[in-house]
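Long-time lurker, finally posting.

We've been working with DNA-directed RNA polymerase subunit Rpo11 (Thermofilum adornatum 1505) and I want a structural starting point before designing mutants. I don't trust myself to interpret raw outputs, so I'm hoping someone here can both generate the structure tokens and explain anything notable. Sequence follows.
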Amino acid sequence: MSATQKTAIYVEKYTQNFLELKIEGEGHTLLNLIVDELNSIPNVEAAYRVEHPLLKTARLMIRTSGSKSPLDAFREATENIKNKLEELKKQVAQHK
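Top reply, 14 upvotes:
Generated this for you. Predicted structure of DNA-directed RNA polymerase subunit Rpo11:
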């Protein structure tokens, strides 16, 4: 993906305990990270699939037990990733 391309996210399906997002402009690298973080949250199950290996379009599916909305789980996972990356950045800076 070039520096000028943007990632586009579309809600394909949203219910009380299920969310399916279509994500254009991303592939395995980002989706693996997000799914791993989502699956570390109790009562949340997530998976993704890349629609075609030559196209940067993927679908992310999130299912919850209902104690938390799938959108809240997505927000929590992305915030956790952001915090972990900030901590990694600090650790790298300390070792320069």
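Before you design anything, note these points.
DSSP finds two helices and four strands in the chain.
The chain has one domain: 8-94.
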